[in-house]
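User: tokens in, sequence out, please.
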């Protein structure tokens, strides 16, 4: 009984050392600069999307309300890991306390799972709008939208609470160096000096619930949407439906693909270098691309942007 307690006490005080993504070479300095630029664009783009949707009454619809929540999640999601990574490279702050590692792990999984659920709910919104347009105001009322968003946040919180508690209960008595630039569950588990096989099975089941169930829901929704679109007689209506849905499908593929690789494939398929590249993709690149994809393929959003830019131009000339 005494040994696990000593492991726990040691783990809770010693903390961990994160691995920097970059070294001092010119190529790595360039890549670091690109990550900083992409992170800045992600923050600015998603903040602009939220303000645009909240400020333009024409965008006060269920679809754009859910889109504003997606942008809000992306702001928090990318900020859980990237600022720490930037500080680690610039100032050498690569250590992280045991509690700090747990907090980073919790918020990363909380926001990631919430976004997975939200993307599935956005597919449901498109399904109702296209397949049952007359019932859309009732099925997607303001109260329903608020409940759907609350469900995504609650589901993400529940998932993160369970996984963080289970991960941190293992003893960490060997190496303190995490082969990753942030505290992600698979990377932290490699340092555990206990058999984690049973928990990895739990992690797989959680991945099925959080990743594959929403993917199946999205796939079914869009199969029904496609069937409804093909039955449309209006070419303009068909093009509008396909443009909106293609934007959402692009975001779904960008976000779910890397997560399935990280959390669904066995550990034998992973290597630290590959995990870093995949993690950068969904923690930095995808949050930056989301507002770009939705703004470029959406007439209402581009129209609202032109309206705001027009006001800014008038204000400057005045």
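Assistant: Sequence out:
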């Amino acid at each position: 009984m005494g040994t696990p307690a000593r492991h726990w006490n040691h783990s809770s005080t010693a903390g961990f050392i994160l691995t920097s993504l970059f070294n001092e070479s010119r190529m790595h300095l360039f890549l670091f600069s690109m990550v900083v630029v992409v992170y800045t664009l992600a923050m600015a783009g998603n903040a602009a999307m939220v303000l645009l949707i909240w400020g333009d009454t024409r965008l006060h619809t269920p679809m754009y309300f859910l889109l504003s929540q997606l942008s809000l999640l992306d702001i928090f999601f990318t900020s859980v890991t990237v600022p720490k990574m930037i500080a680690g490279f610039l100032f050498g702050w690569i250590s992280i306390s045991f509690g700090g590692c747990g907090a980073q792990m919790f918020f990363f999984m909380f926001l990631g799972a919430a976004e997975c659920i939200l993307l599935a709910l956005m597919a449901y919104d498109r399904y109702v709008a296209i397949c049952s347009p007359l019932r859309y105001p009732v099925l997607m009322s303001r109260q329903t939208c608020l409940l759907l968003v609350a469900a995504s946040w609650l589901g993400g919180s529940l998932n993160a609470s369970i996984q963080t508690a289970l991960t941190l209960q293992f003893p960490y008595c060997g190496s303190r160096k995490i082969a990753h630039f942030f505290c992600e569950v698979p990377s932290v588990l490699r340092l555990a000096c206990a058999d984690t096989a049973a928990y990895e099975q739990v992690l797989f089941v959680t991945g099925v619930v959080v990743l594959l169930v929403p993917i199946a829901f999205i796939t079914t929704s869009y199969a029904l949407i496609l069937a409804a679109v093909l039955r449309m007689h209006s070419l303009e209506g068909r093009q509008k439906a396909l443009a909106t849905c293609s934007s959402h499908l692009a975001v779904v593929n960008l976000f779910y693909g890397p997560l399935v690789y990280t959390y669904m494939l066995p550990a034998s398929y992973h290597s630290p270098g590959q995990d870093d590249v995949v993690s950068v993709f969904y923690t930095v690149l995808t949050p930056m691309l989301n507002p770009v994809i939705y703004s470029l393929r959406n007439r209402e959003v581009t129209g609202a942007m032109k309206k705001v830019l027009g006001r800014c131009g008038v204000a400057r000339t005045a």
